[in-house]
Amino acid sequence: MPSISIKKYVEESSLANMTTTTVSTVKKALTIPPVPKNVWLASLFLEFSLTPNGSQLTRTKRNGPLTVQKAFYPEGRDCAHIYLLHPPAGIVSGDELRISVQVNEQAHSLVTTPGANRFYRAREDLSIGDSKQVQHCVFTLQDKAICENFPLETIVYEGADGFNTVDVHLKSNSAYLGWDITCLGLPRSGQFFKKGSYTQLNRVYCEDTLIYHDRIAIKPNNQIHQHIAGLNNKNVFATFMAYAPAGQIDDTQHKVLITQLRDSMIEVNAEHKISISQIRQLLVIRYLGQHAEECKALFIQLWQKIRPLYLNKDANIPRVWHT
Question: Which stretches of the chain drop beneath a pLDDT of 70?
Fold first, then answer.
């Protein structure tokens, strides 16, 4: 067949023998989809490797308003502390943030943020563009790698339409400690979360097998925020996940640790806000209450007990949390 354009070939050879419905289908298939309106995509890839000078940030790739400063070493060269920076300081309709952290063999990274993340009120006029607000974080750990992921709280404003995902991919001999803290609205400022949608999805894979899947979808029509079997009108919910390398601690030590963690929460009268359970080798700690600062303080207290056993290191609080 002589070389002719697809458009000319369709017009001259095919359309004459097609029904109106088929012609419409072909034209639709050949149409280039329009670029979404008011969309801002941002991505950040960080790779950590163990070098003769310790754990270092060896590769960075970014697009859009996501970046990091240099690595800090408040506890020595074998653990690199990194602060994720998002200058817009929040996610609006049409924003999609993708953060990927890869920790190579025997490297150790601690990732945090200097301030709270925010899902702002979503646009209501969909003729301007989609209302969705998306953040997707992926942490990939190689053999004997260690990753700690401790972002400050995420504030979900009234009328938001957010989706936040955290995926963790482990090797059986790697270690992960990480939390997410979600605040619905700003109750202390009189800004309550009465309408809007927000989904938090946490998944953990070990050796490519899904070992943990947790999803909460808050929507106006499902009343999860208000229902007694849901959040029971609490505005702050959070999850702290901790995975110890295979062989690091046995079942007896795990049971002793869980008892110690629960007792420490009883001592500070927080046992009705914190639950602690073990799912396979994954320690899952949940908070349900009204105050992000209280949640973070409790999680830090638990981290200070978990870290020495899981990582053979005392907890070293990032300096940025004190600013």
Answer: 1-38
Lookup result for tokens 């505005």: 235
Which structure tokens are listed for 252?
Answer: 């007896």
- Residue whose pair of structure tokens reads 């000319």 in the numeric block: 8
> Which pTM was predicted?
0.86
* Strand partners of residue 45: 61, 100
Of the candidates 153, 163, 36, 181, the residue with the CA atom closest to the CA atom of residue 91 = 163
Are 263 and 301 in contact, with CB atoms under 8 Å apart? Answer: no
Query: H-type helices in the chain, by residue range?
Result: 6-9, 20-30, 251-267, 292-311
- What is residue 263's three-state secondary structure? helix
Main-chain dihedrals φ then ψ at residue 293, nearest 5 degrees: -65, -40
> Do 237 and 293 meet the contact criterion of CB atoms below 8 Å apart?
no
Please work out, in degrees rounded to the nearest 5, the angle formed at the alpha carbon of residue 41 by the alpha carbons of 65 and 138: 85
Q: Which two tokens stand for residue 56?
A: 């270092």
Say how far residue 87 (Cα) sits from the centre of its chain: 18
Strands 236-243 and 209-218: unpaired
Secondary structure class of 108 (helix, strand, coil): strand
Counting Cβ atoms within 10 Å, is residue 216 exposed (0-12), middle (13-18) or buried (19+)?
A: middle
Q: How far apart are the first and last CA of the chain?
A: 71
The b/e string for 108-144 (b: 16+ C-beta within 10 A; e otherwise) is bbbbbbeeebbbbbbbeeeeeebbbbbbbbbbbbbeb
Our CA dihedral for 286, 292, 295, 299, rounded to 10 degrees, sits at 90
